[in-house]
Design brief:
single chain; alpha+beta; BirA Bifunctional Protein, domain 2; Rossmann fold; five-stranded mixed β-sheet; 15 helices; 38% helix; elongated; binds adenosine-5'-triphosphate; binds magnesium ion
Length: 432
């Protein structure tokens, strides 16, 4: 085996798998477009400061997960760990935030984490961001859009919506004091990470996976009691909108997000079917972020979903045929140089007439028998065969390769004149 391996936590995706990704990407793109979201394509590398300012210095991402390096000009750059900061930067830079905007993006993100199922160092997200609308109808739209997506993907039965409001920064800082005061009584019973966070980012303790810490949190003060009036109002409007739209949800007052920019509504779509990495989509409001990054005060709300986890869930729920697909619809066998030339030009014009048909031409020569073996292996429904006889008669042999479902019989092969080939082939391809 070669000594070159992919970087730990970064994986290659081959055609058997990429077709599942394509199905996911196409379904997402169609669904988001049906709500008026337009795709933005953004750089993978940004100035590091964008993320330290945007995501927050005391977050896990900025503290220990970023891929940061100096370029040749000694400027600190980072591979993007998430998409929102870059999207906000781009929107400010382009000067498009004087009117509401709906955007989506897709692509790789990078975080130095411990690789495990559903957690990689290069992973992929599709995210949506809506700028310029402060009212909770926008939050509802994003949640409805994601709910529709789960239905279209056939995974709605496997996911659950959790929502919370983390309020304004004032209400959060009042809550933070109360939480710190409460947890200070139990410092030595907290896990190590949480002890550290007690100083740097106490709200993140609510997120701790440690059972002992979770038990202590049972009696901790509840965030909902510290909400400012506006956040509480907005949250009840959102709940009412979701109920009216028939979207089920659970209010989880411990739900916080790992990035500093969130305020008011936060939400997560979670599943119990993937083990520890159960969050497939997460988002919320970030009304202060545009201003924080130097733009005019503009509200925003968005979400990002983890594509690796979605692909795993699609497989887990059997909502997609994960068996390996044939690589060809038609396999072209040609024995001898003359036959190959006729085959080549005929198949080229077939591709013009049947652009969706996958016509794989045998390459590399070989005997009839060895070419037919390849035809069989390709999983093609039909083989087109050219030998000396066909070339001199101006015909091609059309040989069905699969058996018919009902009778279990293989259809007879036929000889066909070249002008008739498109029609004969179309008919042959409709059988199973
Ligand atoms: P987690 O708690 O699982 O670490 P997070 O809160 O850090 O997630 P976000 O920053 O909100 O995640 O990203 C949104 C989504 O992107 C997550 O819900 C998840 O589906 C996916 N995601 C995040 N980090 C990774 C990763 N390292 N590998 C694969 N998917 C990821
Ligand atoms: Mg994380």
């Amino acid at each position: 085996m070669s000594k070159y391996r992919s970087v730990r936590g970064m994986v290659d995706i081959f055609p058997e798998d990429s077709r599942h990704w394509q199905f996911l990407e196409n379904t997402v793109a169609e669904t988001l477009a049906s709500y008026g979201y337009g795709e933005v394509r953004l750089p993978i590398v940004e100035y590091t400061e964008l993320f330290t300012r945007g995501i927050g210095k005391a977050t896990d991402i900025v503290e220990k997960e970023m891929y940061t390096f100096d370029d040749r000009n000694a400027e600190s750059l980072s591979l993007r760990p998430e998409g929102t900061a870059g999207c906000v930067r781009a929107a400010i830079q382009a000067g498009v935030l004087n009117t509401p905007q709906r955007y989506w993006y897709a692509g790789p993100m990078f975080r130095y984490e411990r690789p495990q199922k559903g957690r990689q160092r290069q992973f992929h997200q599709i995210g949506a961001e809506a700028f310029g609308v402060a009212s909770p109808d926008m939050d509802a739209e994003l949640i409805l859009m994601s709910a529709r997506l789960w239905r279209r993907l056939g995974i709605a039965q496997g996911v659950e919506l959790q929502i919370n409001s983390i309020g304004s920064s004032e209400s959060r800082s009042r809550y933070r004091s109360a939480l710190v005061e409460y947890l200070n009584q139990y410092v030595d019973q907290l896990d190590e990470d949480s002890q550290r966070r007690l100083q740097s980012n106490p709200l993140r303790i609510l997120d701790s996976k440690n059972a002992g810490t979770q038990a202590l949190l049972e009696n901790a003060p509840d965030m909902s009691e510290f909400l400012d009036a506006e956040s509480a109002d907005d949250f009840s409007i959102l709940c009412a909108l979701l109920t009216a739209a028939g979207v089920a949800y659970t209010v989880n007052t411990r739900l916080v997000r790992g990035l500093d920019y969130y305020n008011k509504t936060v939400f997560e779509w979670v599943t119990t079917r993937l083990g520890a990495q159960g969050t497939i989509c997460a988002g919320g409001r970030y009304d202060g972020l545009v201003k924080q990054l130097g733009g005019r005060d503009t509200p925003g709300v968005g979400f990002a979903m983890g594509m690796e986890r979605l692909v795993l869930l699609l497989a887990e729920m059997g909502s997609m045929d994960m068996s390996s697909a044939p690589v060809a619809d038609v396999y072209v066998v040609a024995v001898g140089d003359d036959a190959y030339k006729v085959a080549l030009s005929t198949v080229e014009s077939l591709r013009s007439e049947m652009p969706r048909c996958r016509l794989v031409q045998h390459t590399g020569g070989g005997s009839f028998k060895s070419q037919m073996k390849k035809a069989d292996k390709s999983g093609a429904q039909v083989a087109l065969i050219w030998g000396e006889d066909e070339v001199s008669a101006g015909t091609v042999t059309v040989k069905p390769m699969r058996v018919e479902k009902e009778s279990g019989e293989r259809l007879a092969q036929q000889s066909c004149l070249l002008p008739e080939l498109p029609a004969v082939l179309s008919a042959a391809l409709t059988i199973d």
